[in-house]
Amino acid sequence: MNVVIIEDEFFSAEKLRILLQQIDPSLEVMAVLPSVEKAVSWFSTHPEPDLIFSDIQLEDQESFALFERLAIDAPIIYTTAYDQYAIQAFKQNSIDYLLKPINPEELRAALKKYEYLSQRFVSKNPETPKSDPKERFMVRKGNGFTVVKAQDIAYFKSDQKLSFLITFDGQKLLVDATLEELTEQVDARRFNRISRNRLVCIDSIQKIHPHFNGRLKLELIPADEEEVYVSRDRVQAFKEWINS
């Protein structure tokens, strides 16, 4: 496996290189790149690696700028001392997000995850496409009904056997459908069923925080009345959806 490390701290890069080769002696580090400009130059003249390990705050700017400037398909494992970049990272080609100092077991798990996902996507047969997602929903408003465009919906939630949609401008409107039915009707690229009672749009997710017992805690726009969590059994699918 060929790897590139994007890291501006020499000792952090060296420690990561040593850990990687301890885990997999056949692994080859093709380059250690300390800045976005040097990374742009390198990727413009070299083939892509199998996997990229990237810090976020580099000596010239954030590494996100690299992936905005170049179309790089290689998966990325972010390594950083800060957790506030998680949602932005998962919107890139990220398959994992490791906090410094790097824990060897977490690094080993991240590499296993890369191998698992690589094998899965190579061997997976094309799925039968679903019918086109709904572009609008008729909902109750006052004594009548109104129509809400799918692009205006931040998330759906169920409460006491009723389903509601919440728009980006903060309206909470009753929907005559179950969350199971809504999950089948929306665009799966934009909406994800994170728990038994929440179906969220990717554009509504402001921040992602690790939480107790393997769950993830989300900050949504607009803010929900209750704390919002990704169920533990849905975390892996959620991460794959964010990264798709």
From TrEMBL:
Pfam families: LytTR, Response_reg. Residues 137-244 form the HTH LytTR-type domain. Gene3D superfamilies: 3.40.50.2300, LytTr DNA-binding domain. SMART domains: LytTR (SM00850), REC (SM00448). Keywords: DNA-binding, Phosphoprotein. Coiled coil: none annotated. Residues 2-115 form the Response regulatory domain. GO terms for molecular function: DNA binding; phosphorelay response regulator activity. The modification 4-aspartylphosphate is found at residue 55. The keyword RNA-binding does not apply. PANTHER family: STAGE 0 SPORULATION PROTEIN A HOMOLOG (PTHR37299:SF1), TRANSCRIPTIONAL REGULATOR-RELATED (PTHR37299). This is DNA-binding response regulator.
